[in-house]
Every structure is written in structure tokens, then in C-alpha cells.
Amino acid sequence: MSKIAVVTDSCASIPKNLMEQMGIQTVAYYIHRGKDVLRDLVTIQRDEFLRWLPGANILPTTASPGPGDYFQKYQDLIVSGINEIISIHMTARGSGAYQSACVAQTMVAEQYPDIRLEVIDTQNVSLCQGWMVIESARSALAGASFDQILAQVRQMIPITQMVQTADTLKYLYMGGRIGLAKRLMGTMLNIKPLIGMKDGVIVALGMAHSRLQAYHQMVEYAKEAVGQNQVKVAYVHAGALEEAQKLKEIVESNLNVAESFIAELSPALAVHTGPGTAGLCFYPIGR
Questions:
Q1: Burial status of residue 186 (CB atoms within 10 A of its CB: 0-12, 13-18, 19 or more)
Q2: CATH number given to 4-29+64-156
Q3: In the 8-state DSSP scheme, what is residue 131?
Q4: Residue 273: per-residue pLDDT
Q5: Based on CB atoms within 10 Å of each CB, which residue in 102, 186, 256, 285 is the most buried?
């Protein structure tokens, strides 16, 4: 077990087996569904939530963990003997998680002044955030220092990218998370939007007339981003495993993929993407 703990939250959507292998610590988001308050991947799981979501008349709301949630996680780690913690979160422009973790960081500094705790805004989401968590945990297990891991994450932030498509943008629109991609709402008939993130905000990257065309456009986008470098890819989806597998086949026929896996978005993210979403979270290696 590493002496450095890596903490994230459920929206990183990291597969359970990877979290267990690497000792990744996670804090659950909240989902408010009517009078029910659910904890992401704790009291509500992916399959159940995605069966329910298409028939919802009112979209559930999500809330980031509060300072107390993060403080409790940090405190549990400290009591277990950990004295260095790296806490990695989605874009501060799309969630209050980073701010909550920063408040908890102040609480830790007051009560445990000898503990080193760094809170990081990845300016991204989903498995882009997840890749930074995974690589940090790997480095910690391999014996890297706290400062080396921080440098690694900061190098990954500007080069880790997301591109995805869905049958509709209505979930992002209803949830108020559409950002600079709002202009696509007026052209949604018979097209597949491509969206990504820039400076921590969802943006439009283009559109296609079919999923297959969208997948090939994703490949071209990734090619331009990574050049001749090898790339690590997470194929993400929400109730669309077959689509993620199709996308994987196309990508790996065209790019030099060093590592990849398929991951399903957590319910707290699926609220905003809706079922049917498929995409890539990737970054180049060897630069």
C-alpha cells in the first residue's frame, strides 16, 4: 500500500476493479430524485438509474459532496496512518466539488498541521479526471514522491481531452451544463453532436449525421491532438456498451493506443449526458 493517498469523487467513473487494484479513494456525489437523496454508486447504481431516466418527467439534480464529506474521507485516511493526500476533482466551472475539497483542506490544516494535502482542479471531467487519478495512484504505488505526482498531474491537465456524442443534448440542456455548446440545440434534428471541454467548460466540437460518422470524426480529432505519439484511451458510455465497443475498434485501427479500457459513466454524470452517450477520454504519452 502506498504512503500517499489519492482521493477523487464518483464522477471520475473509474472502473471498480481499477480503484481496488490501486487503492483509489472516492467520495460519492449526491443525486436528488424527487424526495429521495441518493449517493452516486452507493445507493444508486448505473443500470437501475439508466432504466429509470428516460421516463423521468423532471430531471434529477446533482450536488457535489460537501466539505464535511471530504473532511471525513481525509480524516479517515489520516487516522489510518496516511500523511500525504492528493485530492483530484472535476472542473471547478462545472461543479462545487473542488471548492468543497478546498474548504476541507483548510479544516485539515487546522486540525492536522503536519499533514500534506493538495487539492487539484483538473479543468475536465469523467475519465479525463479519471486518467489523472489512475496515473497518480500508479505512481504512488511505484514509489514516486508527492511532488513528482503533483508535477505529473499538472502536465496532464492541458493535454487530456474528452470528445463524445449522444442522441440528444436535452439532458445537458435541462441540467444547465451545456455551456458553449448551446448553439447546437437549434440544429438537433437528425444530427449527432460532438462535444468536448475547453478551459473547464463544455464546448461544441462539431456535428455528424450518424454515429459512425461521429466516431470517425472523433478519430480525426484525436489524431490532430496526439500527433505521432502513443495514446491512452478510456472509452466512456452511458448504457451504450456496444457503441463504446464499436468506437474502440475504429480508434484502435487508426491510432497507436498504448492502453485502453471501457468505462460506464456514473449516474451523477449520466443525469446530464443521458443514456446512449459514447465517447473518448484520452491523452498522448511520450511527449
A1: exposed
A2: 3.40.50.10440
A3: H
A4: 82
A5: 102
